[in-house]
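U., I forgot to send this yesterday:
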Amino acid sequence: MSKYTIGMWMYQNSGGDKIQQKIVDKLLEKDISTIVDLNLRYAKVKNGKIICRSAVMEELDLFFSYNAGEQTLYQVYLYEILNKFIPTLNSYESFALSEDKFKTAHLLKRNGVTTADYMLCHRDEVKNLREILKEWGGKIVYKPTDGWGGVGLVKIENEAALDMLLPFLNQTDIRYFYVERFITYDNTDFRIDIVDGEFVACYGRRAPKDNWKTNITSGGSIMLREANDEVVKIAKQAAKICGLDIAGVDLIYDLEKEEYVVLEVNGIPAFATPQQEKMGLNFNDKKIELIVNLIEKKVKGYS
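Result:
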């Protein structure tokens, strides 16, 4: 029987099931057993215990949550509570930060990392949106502060477009508007994976024709690309500032200002799918090794 036991909830599609098994096997070699499929969506809390699939979550040595697509408010709520009693990966605080685009951008900007120029204003202060649209040359991007995959992003290129968007937004319960300056770039980005402060891999995404979004869910495509020292340094810095042990940092190159810009910091960056591995994205084994070593360090108290 292993001395240590951790819990894991990991996505199963796109090769995630095989990644999970590799992590489980490598952890077992380090005397760490794993209880898988601990989706807190199905947990119950009673008399001081969070119970999921018969496991008492507070008695685990660590909880590794790695599933972006199936999160529920209940699951996230329990994730926050559990983090007060055992180590979680990522920590709830850093996970919650990465889920909020404004909070991430604000923290990075305050710590000297270049992000897109942004503004947050109350929903009743529409005049601020009109002023910033003019100040930023007539192009801004409206973003929900949460969400992923490019869902809800709208490029606004003139006041007429803003006037068309506002009635829709006013029908929602949104309390504020978050917008960013539209950056002129070559319609490709960099995704830099970082684990425990170490560079794992770099690849890129290319926006489809007649679109500006590089997200795969928006029609973007994966491309091989090499990292340079500057983007790796920026990504490491961004991950550290956000407190993320595991991070995927998205950057683009601003052609007007001639500088790299951090667009987003993802707390659950996906592994390469089997199809992506065939095209040359061969970083999964390195990422698995670094994550396993990170878990061992946390449960065994290594510094």
